[in-house]
Every structure is written in C-alpha cells, then in structure tokens.
Write a structure and sequence with these properties.
This protein is mostly helical. It is about 45% helix and about 5% strand.
Length: about 110
C-alpha cells in the first residue's frame, strides 16, 4: 500500500508512529455486493453491511501496514518484535450524512 521508498523514509526518520489513514466514501454502499464479498447473510441491512465493510477496511489497512513494517525490518536486519509499538489509526468517514434508519433518504 505504501511505496517502498516512502516506508523506508518513515522508518529511517522514526515516523511510522505518526501516520494515520482516513478511508473516505464510507457512505457509498452497494448492499448486494457487500453481502456477496463479505459473506454476509442475505438479510443484512445496509447499516450492518456498512459496519462490516468498515471493519474489514480497517483490518486490511492495518494488516498491510504491519506487513510493510515487517518487510522493512527484515531488510534492515532488525527483529520484527521491535516493531510491536507501532499503531496505525484508521478512520472510515462518510462524505455526507445518511440516516440509515430512513433508507429512502440515502
């Protein structure tokens, strides 16, 4: 997700812990597609689909971040256990407010 030179610079500058991701357009939801892609029950509501998709997105970004740290540590000959202190805040945000209890307004 992050380019190698960008990751290397962050690691060399000790700035990996200063990074945060903001995933936008969290309000753009295709219920049918999310049910299929995330293996949700066909009865899942739009709100349930949004929550699951956001949780999946956050987990995936964090996993990719961790994999990048491990790759850079390995190349630098460092112990991966030394990278445990890094935390990546991930925020999912909507570009407009949608009241999911009133689906005709979304």
């Amino acid at each position: 997700m992050l380019g190698e030179s960008f990751r290397r610079q962050l690691l060399m500058d000790g700035l990996f812990g200063s990074l945060a991701f903001v995933a936008t357009h969290a309000d753009l939801i295709n219920r049918t597609e999310l049910i299929r892609n995330l293996g949700l029950p066909k009865t899942a509501t739009k709100e349930e689909c949004a929550k699951k998709r956001n949780a999946y997105t956050k987990a995936r970004i964090k996993a990719d971040f961790r994999a990048g740290l491990e790759e850079m540590a390995s190349r630098a000959g460092e112990e991966v256990s030394n990278m445990r202190g890094y935390y990546l805040p991930v925020f999912t945000v909507a570009s407009f407010v949608c009241n999911l209890s009133q689906p005709n307004r979304c």
